[in-house]
Amino acid sequence: MPSLDENKRRWTESYAWEDAGEEWSRAWGGSEAQWFGSIFPRLHAFLPAGTVLEIAPGYGRWTRFLRPQCTRLVLVDLSERCISACRQRFGDDASIEYHVNDGRSLGMVRDRSIDLAFSFDSLVHAEVDVIESYLGELSRTLAADGIAFLHHSNFAALDEELESRHWRSRSVSGDIVREIAERERLAVVSQERINWGRKELSDCITVLTPAGSRWERPPRIVDNPGFMAEAVRIATWAPLYTGFGAVELEPSSRGREVRR
Questions:
Q1: Can you tell me the mean pLDDT for 129-143?
Q2: CA atoms within 13 A on the CB side of 172
């Protein structure tokens, strides 16, 4: 739990999407504050990038920040509802491709064509079979010096009696992802095991690259039990500095960046 079918039903049928995914960034003071205060500092070394793949974009919460950082953006989601929402949100921007997949494969993506693969706050719901399938696909689709930045569950490393909050997968951990990556000839650059709404390190951010990449190094692995404390700090200053400078793509802009 959750299975692939359960994920598809949840994000396509039962979930209300009350604020287009923004509801998950409230602890940070909004998605703009979370992106620039928490995600971008961890990702900035790999941006800008030529072609970016976003796996499971939902309603485009992170897509709007990724788009100005690349020349081509490929969105892949198992939910047709989510892909339709992204089409409506970003309009006819010719630089964005939209694809509905089976929740585990990337057959629409060419070999060695992706400079950065990104997924945040989505693959935490994916069980180990899905993670294994995606890592196999990333081994094929990442460019020689490509990077994958993946936020996934670490629940398999925790006490089995703990309740799996926030719909986290119980079969995935940072250690398991490293084992799969090695089999798929992907090198782990770093792993940050983080907490999420609780003290236990239930989540993990893994950065991967093809073996032999210029980014390859001995993996750096850290435990960060202060991740949610970071969110509190960001939320404190967010009202002062967000809401008037974020890049947004309007449907009528045909890919032109507009500032609000």
A1: 98
A2: 33
